[in-house]
Amino acid sequence: MPALGVDLVEEILALKRERNAVILAHNYQIREIQEVADFVGDSLGLSIQAAGTDADVIAFCGVHFMAETAKILNPSKRVILPDLDAGCSLSDSCPAEALEAYLKANADKNYYVIAYINCSGGVKALSDVICTSGNAVRIVNAAPKDRNILFVPDQNLGQWVMEQTGRPMELWKGSCYVHVEFTKQSIERIRAEHPGAPVVAHPECTTAVRLLADEVCSTEKMIHYCRDHSAKAFIIVTESGMLHRLERELPDRIFIPGPTDVCACADCRFMKRNTLEKLRDALDSLQPEITLPEALRARAELPIRRMLEQSV
Ligand code: 13P
Ligand code: SF4
Predict the structure, then answer these.
(1) Which DSSP helix (H) or strand (E) runs through 162?
(2) Minimum-distance ligand to the CA of 239?
């Protein structure tokens, strides 16, 4: 008898061939999706893959802004997202209309707007350059020295980048509902239980948590950090899906999920909306499809291209 899910995986692989599709998955996706994907990575790596693929269909297993970024970068491709309700609280914390109104009301500041990629196409279209957690320091360092920077939408990432670069920035007051769940107490407790295990945290965590970390970095850089470190065990302070990726890449190491005050790990309910069944159905029907008006797409592409140029 085939193992549970084997038929489903075979169906997905057959549909993928039939549709000439590529499956891109974020590091926070469930293990089964990571295993069936052609590429698993962070927001930066996924953007680069989406921009360069020659597949006809991009099946994007992540959240909406990531799939939208893929469409913005490669508009002739059909981009599908297994569940259209896979949103992002951080992206929602900065509506394009609110940013536009703020920029109008503060036109005298002549802001250089740096937007973290976790935002809508509308916000990207209002921005000068995009960054990810993997390249934020580099992008801020490259910003024109004579301009005031407005950094949107993540205040925690923004705060961390200010500390790294020494560049003052005005911060939009958005945050990720998952990463702010980690607390000083919850991380001190797990660290006391595993003395010697380095604490690796995502920059979307609060300052109190980041101060406890041995390393603060993007999800992709977590792999490099753990690979290059001599420790056997690591405390990983980010969304729980990251542990699947780390365990696959570094099977000889032990990864302990960072807990919150109420849970042993933190799940992003948006990332977890995608399932193998929904991926199969999306490849079959080529729905739900990501679309956006061409004028908006073209405007949003410019700051993403600027980011990619500055990332090499
Ligand atoms: P990374 O680009 O580091 O993978 O982060 C994406 C994200 O959504 C973090 O919450
Ligand atoms: Fe958005 Fe946070 Fe989920 Fe990342 S973990 S997709 S920032 S809600």
Answers:
(1) helix 155-165
(2) 2
Is the Cβ atom of 90 under 6 angstroms away from ligand 2?
A: yes
Q: Which atom of ligand 1 is nearest to the CA of 63?
A: 8
Angle at 204 between CA 182 and CA 238, to 5 degrees: 55
Distance 218 CA to ligand 1 centre (A): 6
**Residue labelled with tokens 């980011």:** 307
**Which atom of ligand 2 sits closest to the CA of residue 89?**
8
Q: Is 1 exposed, middle or buried (0-12, 13-18, 19+ CB in 10 A)?
A: exposed
- Ligand 2 centre distance from Cα of residue 175 (Å): 9
Which ligand 1 atom is nearest residue 179's CA? 10
How far is 116 from 299, CA to CA, in rounded Å?
16
* CA atoms of 266 and 249, how far apart (whole Å): 21
Q: What is the pLDDT of residues 121-171, one digit of tens each?
A: 999 999 999 999 999 999 999 999 999 999 999 999 999 999 999 999 999
Give the ligand with the smallest distance to the CA of 90. 2
- Could you tell me how many residues make up the chain? 312
Q: Is 69 left (phi over 0), alpha (psi -120 to 50) or beta?
A: alpha
